[in-house]
Specification:
By secondary structure, the chain is an all-alpha fold. It has helices at 3-33, 40-47, 51-62, 67-77, 80-87, 99-104, 108-116, 125-153, 164-180, 184-201, 210-229. It is built from 11 helices and no strands.
């Protein structure tokens, strides 16, 4: 890879650098606050590489959640990556042996970057896309490591640190709503979360299952809403016909309007 290509990759991923380091540091601090060794942060960052999942995992570990429950929550949280992968099938056709790494290293931010860039002329897409993904992975691991080491060496209050990812989600959600003008998905998410919290508070839902229930209900409701919003199809498989251009009048065999 040419130096100019590497410089372009650094320029493309620079916003992710600032975002991943600033969010990775609170994750590392959470690891230290929970009493785990500092090296668990980079280990989780490399083996899991899912910001949301890692934050959730630390909280669930500390709460004593079972492994099966943690795994199920991770699947539900990361289910969106299935759709990311489907939308990248065409772009990844020529990446060859790099495809496995690109699948592993696909995150929300990396997906957004890969959708907006193409490999430079004369450069194979596999190494170029993989370099972008590798830099993003490095940024995230670096942030988590800095936070974990600092949390292990420096004695200070961790109050509010675990709100960093929530704050990031609020910003991302606001931007998505402003861009899409679609209020239904966030409304469903908020409603399912409130319902799950109430059920857990009154004792109907066992403690520690709020996230699992809210995700399950939210995903199901979104799927039903999308299915109901699809246009109706005629028995023959085509969409229901709109009023005919000639005013809805039947046509005779010659193709002219039925009214003579």
């Amino acid at each position: 890879m040419e130096k100019s290509d590497f410089a372009k990759i650094l320029r493309i991923t620079s916003p992710i650098f600032f975002g991943y380091v600033s969010i990775g540091i609170p994750f590392g601090l959470m690891v230290a606050r929970a009493g785990y060794p500092w090296w668990l942060a980079p280990l989780m960052s490399v083996t899991m590489y899912t910001g949301t999942g890692q934050y959730i995992a630390i909280g669930m570990f500390a709460a004593g959640a079972g492994l099966a429950q943690i795994m199920l929550v991770q699947v539900l949280v990361g289910i969106r990556h299935v759709f990311y992968g489907l939308s990248l099938l065409t772009k990844f056709k020529g990446v060859g042996k790099w495809k496995a790494f690109l699948i592993y290293a696909l995150t929300d931010e990396t997906y957004a970057v890969l959708c907006s860039v193409d490999a430079p002329a004369g450069q194979k897409p596999g190494p170029f896309f993989s370099a972008i993904a590798a830099m993003d992975l490095f940024y995230w691991t670096l942030g988590g490591t800095i936070g974990a080491v600092a949390g292990s060496l420096i004695n200070f209050s961790f109050e509010g640190v675990d709100f960093a990812l929530t704050a990031l989600f609020c910003v991302i959600l606001t931007e998505q709503i402003l861009a899409s003008k679609d209020f239904l998905p966030p409304a469903i998410g908020i409603a399912s979360s409130i319902a799950a919290a109430v059920l857990e508070r009154v004792g109907i839902l066992p403690q520690g299952n709020m996230l699992l229930l809210s995700l399950s209900v939210g995903i199901t409701a979104l799927a039903l809403a999308k299915n109901l919003s699809k246009p109706k199809t005629a028995p023959g498989g085509s969409q229901a016909a709109a009023p005919a251009e000639n005013g809805g009048k039947p046509q005779n065999d010659s193709g002219q309007g039925g009214e003579k």
